[in-house]
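User: Predict the complex.
Assistant: Input components as received:
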Amino acid sequence: MHPAPSVIIFTTCSGLGFGLLFFLGLGQPEVTGFVAFVFYLIAYALAVGGLLASTFHLGHPERAWKAFSQWRSSWLSREGICAVAALLVMGLYALGAVFAGSHWTVIGWIGALLSLATVFTTSMIYTQLKTIPRWNMNLTPAMFLSFSLAGGALLAGAEALAPWLLAIAGAVQLAYWAKGDGAFARSGTTLGTATGLGGRGAVRAFEPPHTGTNYLLREFVHVVGRKHAQKLRVISFGLAFVLPLLLILIPVSGVAIKHIFALLAVLSHLTGVVVSRWLFFAQAEHVVGLYYGKR
Amino acid sequence: MTQLPQSTERKMGLVIDLDTCVGCHACVISCKGWNTENYGAPLSDQDAYGANPSGTFLNRVHSYEVTPAEGHAQLIHFPKSCLHCEDAPCVTVCPTGASYKRVEDGIVLVNESDCIGCGLCAWSCPYGARELDVAEGVMKKCTLCVDRIYNDNLPEVDRIPSCVRTCPAGARHFGDLGDPNSDVSKLVAEREGMDLMPEMGTKPVNKYLPPRPKDQIEDQIDILAPLLAPVAEEPKGFLGWLDKTLEKL
Amino acid sequence: MTIQQPKIDTSPKVSDEVRRTTCYMCACRCGINVHMKDGKVAYIEGNRDHPVNKGVLCAKGSAGIMQVNAPSRLRKPLRRVGPRGSGEFREIEWDEAISTAVGWLNELHETAPQKLAFFTGRDQSQSFTSFWAQNFGTPNYAAHGGFCSVNMAAGGIYTMGGAFWEFGQPDWDHTKLFMLFGVAEDHDSNPIKMGIGKIKARGARVIGVNPIRSGYNAVADDWVGITPGTDGLFILSLIHVLMKAGKIDLDYLSRYTNAPVLVNAAEGPEKGLFLRDADGKPLVIDRVTGKPTAFDKPGVRPDLSATFEKDGVTHRPVFHLMAEKYLSDDHAPEAVADRCGIPAKRIRAIAAEIARVAFDEAIELDQEWTDFRGETHSKMIGRPVSFHAMRGISAHANGFQTCRALHVLQILLGTVEVPGGFRFKPPYPKPIEAHPSPHGDRRPGRPLEGPHLGFVRGPEDLLIDDCGTPQRIDKAFTWENPMSAHGLMHMVISNAAAGDPYKIDTLFMYMANMSWNSSMNTKGVMEMLTARNEDGKYTIPKIIYSDAYSSEMVAYADLILPDTTYLERHDCISLLDRPICEADAAADAIRWPVVEPDRDVRGFQSVLIELANRMSLPGFTNEDGTPKWKDYADYIVNHERKPGIGPLAGFRGENGDKEGRGEVNPDQLNRYIENGGFYVAHIPEGADYYKPWNMAYQDWAVGMGIYDSPQPYLFQLYSEPMRRFQLAAEGHGDRQPPEHLRQRIKDTMDPLPIWYETDQQGNEGFTVNALTQRPMAMYHSWGTQNAWLRQLHGRNPLYVPTKLMREHGLQDGDWAKVSSPHGEITVPVMEMAALNENTVWTWNAIGKRKGAWALQEDAPEATKGFLLNHLIHELLPPKGDGQRWANSDPITGQAAWFDLKVKIEKAAAPSDAESQPEFDPIKSPVGTGPKDLAWKVGK
């Protein structure tokens, strides 16, 4: 798949933002007033910024509001609804925290759930696609959710939980890669089944329908070299999980240094997740590539 | 809207004969012509006279080489457009309801004024049947020429998709695949029409007729050999045979 | 939730109006419905009523809208200002253009008409352009047949009075076995596709004989991946097997062919000629009387076997000679298998299948008919095996004999003009006797005495003067290529540049991309067009060119006469020329301006009329000196070739109710337009098969004006005209060939079809066959300027068989250096398994010169696309005998494109990743096309 910056930014930022909102909704950290304002500003900047970024790849962003109508069948529609609901509910909760200095626990819990649901619905947009075997796995929502929670915990400064969540997310990431690499082959879809000609012999794509490119090739066919991908995986894993873990687990003295390390951990994690998401798209092979003799 | 209908009254679709398609691309261009001028936004072309020409097409003809375990490699031309699936994933993923399957005939359409151009329907389609038009920012796909097949302004004989009307070899057939007595259904039954990527569970309405077995003439030589028994081994004998045969005429 | 669907308009208005005319996106000439909206072309589809395409339309036809609006259209007459080849022009007015042309031409007309060489390429108005040239008085006129398929056309006409494509077609409705030879996708494309579709729908068998398994061969049930150039050998082997098994139609052969005609067997000037009676009629032995009798005498039953002694000279029937030749083991499958690349078993299997279908599945139609000998037959017997071939087997230096062999095979099986076999389309069948011989005299100020092109009967018809000097600039109808019935357009420029046989003053060309894909030795041709004498003047002093588009050739002309596109013009596809007939009907068609040009351009034929009028050319001028016609439309309606016979056969006579023959009808074009742009005259039932011998057909054809009198004839298995050339080469007769050609004429002009290896001198080390073909979605060089079509085929790889890919360590996308004795190219490769293992090929004419066709200079056509033409020379490599032998068929002069042999080597990608050789860009006289398109004319 074409690794469009808009969707990479969207999934990374909104995942992180809703992750933070999840923890805020649970009252972690239990902040009020200006400090709360800063936390919510960060959370909303990430979540809303991510959502806005996602509209950049739309042909008609001005009609995006229509996307709320199809919650019965469409994960994308559900995501939109969840996101708006989460932002509204958490907004109310934030008002309480910032201006009233109080935590309306029930509203917080609902907001936290909606935030998590938003991340889940985002992940389901990809997971539901049988056409992309690497995404069509239970590990995809597991990855989105675990990343969101780990990132949220980091941002929320949940010192106790964050290492565990980072470790879990790292483990899910490794499992996702391991399983994803064989997903296409396991799906059973080949040029033979795509053309129905597989029973007659070895099928090979000969002349493409057009000598030039087209939307399908631009959107669905992106070739990443194996070595290149391995390198990126190491970088991604190191930045997203290993380095942040080290940064938050190294015992340091002084609040300032601690905060700097926490900030570095967040930035490292963010960068790592961006690389992971780039790979998530770039390595995802759509079955339509088979028709073009490409994956 | 984006929920699929429980069932459709008819299942209109195409039957494509891979034994007959010569790969001439007539259907591709006829489709481009009709659908540029008709339903919805024109099918645009970018860099039309430059280094990377790339336009929107609703129907494309691939070609595949099949090499059997024994015998010559074969070349098969393979037209592909929307298969108007019964379980069309492109419909259910659409967040706005722009993508829908018609109850009366099962045609999968995009209501362009509702399309936000998110591309998810194209992502969900295993067949590459949908293309986002770059100029218009909306998803384009085969409409089965919904603006032809019921069009009172066309003579009845022309109320068929433009690709079917134009196909010189007659490799494309149009009809109701939900009616077992229709010509297309009979053709599918007779020629063992097949689905593409059945494992995707999309239940395509369009069917493909597989190529007939090829390069078998030598296997029939045993039956045919007596046909070639020489009338005489020598030219003189041949002339003798000639005389005899001529007398019989 | 109930499902609510959007309401859509399923009955939108399709168009304001439908204008029906004839397509020109290739040479197929299908009927098209042009849908108009707001006076603009909105959509083009096939015309269901049209005899050629019956509603279907190919990719090219449907893309016509992109052709009519192509940015490469020329806009105004141009006068060259830069050096030739630069593309630098200034726009001029038509007045200046016409006066300039008249200034150049009139003097030639009055003093030395042969100094004008007028050649047309994809011309569909040859009966008119030749009429113009004839009245100008130059012997130097032809169209592009010489580098296209003259072998097929002439081979067919000399053998049976017609060939494939516009001459005839398989009986698609009845045939049960269809055998296709060679590349055929680029001619008669829709009818063949429709025919194959019909056969396939019936589940009948298609056999494809072609080194490349693409297109029609891809759907063939059996593929014969033959070695290029050996088709004749394969066909003669089929003939051997069938004759040996007696699977030939003796009754048919005795009645309708010259198999029983008696041939002089005595050494001497008569050897090999027919025994004729006092009226010149060939004689056969009548089985009833045992006496020699004229072949067409009522009641005669010709004997295929009996010989006849006269004055001590033995006369043997042609069939004896055939038995002697073809029963020889030289033609056995085992003897030819290796050379053809087809196992002997397969050859036998195919022969057996042909025999089975022809004889065990014969068709009988209950249709009474009467033959030319007065015998009435109660049934029409059909042998449902049919064949088709086109350029694939033609474009070899043994192509003429190969085409003859294929026709002879059909005739031996009795499948010509019978149900299920091959059927002629009017005005064919037409024997040699009904064709003119060629004319090449030159008489200043006066017209030629007859048509330029024709069919020689013997050495006496050659266009050479007493010293043997060719009369024509292309050396057609000379000992080098005696039967060059279509001229030799591919030799014009090189001969003119060399001043051999003489110098010319003006080269005038129409729709012929000679500086690019229509020439062998492309680079050489560019050099010839720009070559200068010592005095600095161009060797070819003046070049006038007419084209609708900014083709590569435009840059090489001094004066450009911009033509219209096909939807902006009048044309007639005439029975006098190459009509659109079907086997069941005579038919012709017109084009008419369904839109008016939005540029300052004029239809070329109207410009020719204006030139003729300004020069008062005979034929174009009334006795009082006034012009006969003001433009081409006027000519189409009012010209009469013979009284009552004009360019269009339909709606003749005062009331428009006469067909074929009839007075001029001033309203004729309107009647054609009302009728869909064409006219069909159906052949009456009972007259539609056995046409050469069926009196009902003969009488109908006379009524239609196709013949002046009935012309029944025998199929010429044995070609007496060819024997006459052989006799000359053997030393008989007054007109003698030059010594260096004597042996070749003896060897190649065998009156019975033979196969010979083409000249391989200089090919040492070049062992791989290299071919080209046109993709079905493109034709000529027009396709790549078409915004829709160029997306299908925007560049062309060299297709290389798996074995050669492995041998040379090549992978898809690698580059290879491909060299021939003449030149080398470096191009990208792609593997193809379904390909003869020693053949490479590519799509022809995708490659473009930078700056041409209004494409941007970095267009893939100009950077990746390439021509194989650079590897082919119009002459064979020097042999050291002082002669340069033409790379063409020694009989017809057909350009031997497909004899090319190459060597292939893996190469590094060129530094700029562009196919080699590269040429400097030419300056586009029309700029380049727009960036983006979204072509919707309606609201």
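Helices of chain B lie at 26-37, 89-92, 120-124, 146-149, 162-166, 183-191, 221-224, 235-248.
Let me know if you want any component modeled separately.
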